[in-house]
Fold this protein.
Amino acid sequence: MSWLWIIPVLGVLVIIHELGHFVSARMLGIRVEEFGLGIPPRLFAIRHNNIDYSLNALPIGGFVKILGENGESAAPDSFGMQPAWKRIIVLAAGSLMNLLLALLLFIALGLFGDRVADNTHVGFTSISADSPAAKAQLQPGDLLLAVGGVAVNDIGAARDALNSHYGQPVTLTISRGGQQLSVPVTLRNPPQPALGVILEAAVDPVKVVGVQPNTAAAAAGLRAGDVITGVDGKPATSTLAVAAALNGMKDGPVTLTVTRGGVTQTLQATVSKGFLDGWSYEIPSHLVTYSPAEAIGRGFSRVGDLLRRIPESLATVISGLFTGQNAAGSFAGPVGIAQLTGEIANEQGLNGIIALTGLLGINLFLFNMLPLPALDGGRLLFILIELLRGGRKVPPEREGMVHAVGMIALLALILLITISDVIHLFEGGSILHPR
């Protein structure tokens, strides 16, 4: 039931976002009619200072109802009658609050303890056909140790190193089955992914920490404390190597090589859909705390890094949709985010949940500020058009029509992504550890 963490995570993000709109409107003298949690139908409301504070039936999202937000009122304190600068502040305040929340959460992690993983490497979980990685015969499960002789020890450093060699030949140092190899490769030019792989953190060695009863792992005799070293007689010394080996197999029996109490043993297991169900591995880590100045600096650095990387990843995904080389990630809807939240809660605990909330806050900031209909950024675009036209507004009915069509398109996209998430969930796929 760890996926239930999605409720407080999204709840905090929504409340903070709507508070941004609410507080800014009130401070600027714009009439607020309702502050609602959830989506109607309304369950009940409390009225205070001519504002309804409502709780609604569908526990997703929230809203602030501002008088004349769609230009339907000519009252002096309505939204549509305010100067452009006030409307810009109110529209941007929600997303800016999400960004501020992310910054505060990352600073708090530095102050009270940020968990840092030990013995982790960067590896490949997926390789696009006809990509530089495929042409160089790189394999899922390979660990990336260095790019052009410069060591990389996390995903961010690996991406930066690869992107710094866009369109150039470079030598990659990788580890495969415990052997170190030098692989020459010529990277692609942007906007395509430089190497054409999905990068993921890998743990070495693969130490089992939990086995669920009545699962394939339990039936195989796998025990907590076992260290997996091979699959079907081939070395597999990292979590990515084990996952890659299993993923390439048809449903049926598989031999696992494990070390138990210093003794090497073989276990007979059963793979289903490229997955061995019912076990988890250890991610060694330690808690690091920083001084207030260091924590603040790290918080700003982390937010700045994500503000740069998220658009880059989005551009790569969109490019992949048109080129067929989508190896940089995928979209996730409500179901996917709930699954991801549960996986992070299981593996990383409260620290992971806090970091995820910060990451989602930055995503929400960037998404809401896109100049698309129905989003805050779309409404800001209409104010910009108004300013460019010398103060002449687009007729409210036309703007409303654009936002209505945009909302329908957005809901349709969310529905499609949700269907994909549900299919992925029933196939046993992991969001945190894609196969």
About this structure: The chain has three domains: 84-114+288-435, 119-200, 206-275. DSSP finds ten helices and 16 strands in the chain. The radius of gyration is 25 Å. The domain at 206-275 is CATH 2.30.42.10 (Pdz3 Domain).
